[in-house]
């Protein structure tokens, strides 16, 4: 089974619209067919689901910074789930860790041209 992650809900619905499917909470299940013999899930990211952590999450002294402490470049970058998008993040995480899912297809940004 494959997981297809679109950028937005309408894009996910469009991708799944040509298949027999069932709408679920936060994703669409595509039933087995010629292209997806084991079926597929289609979900969406609703834009950015994560963001960089605030400077003070790396080092408490970075909460109040000055020109002397800039640039702030952590050794390892930390990310946090955007609070308003936590539910969709958990849906995608659950689908991505489903043992039936053997491949994840990134289907966002369809207008980006790759040379």
Automatic annotation (TrEMBL):
Gene3D superfamilies: 3.40.50.140. Residues 2-107 form the Toprim domain. It comes from the Bacteria. GO terms for molecular function: isomerase activity. Signal peptide: none annotated. The keyword Isomerase applies. InterPro entries: Topo_IA_core_domain, TOPRIM_dom. The keyword Protein biosynthesis does not apply. Keywords: Isomerase. This is DNA topoisomerase III. It comes from Mesobacillus boroniphilus JCM 21738.
């Amino acid at each position: 089974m494959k997981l297809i992650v679109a950028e937005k809900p309408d894009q996910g619905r469009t991708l799944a619209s040509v298949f027999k499917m069932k709408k679920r909470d936060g994703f669409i299940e595509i039933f087995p067919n010629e292209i997806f013999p084991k079926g597929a899930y289609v979900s969406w990211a609703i834009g950015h689901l994560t963001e960089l952590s605030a400077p003070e999450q790396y080092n408490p002294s970075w909460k109040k910074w000055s020109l002397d402490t800039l640039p702030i470049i952590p050794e390892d970058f930390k990310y946090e789930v955007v609070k308003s998008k936590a539910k969709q993040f958990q849906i995608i995480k659950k689908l991505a860790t489903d043992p039936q899912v053997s491949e994840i297809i990134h289907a966002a940004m369809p207008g980006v041209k790759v040379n």
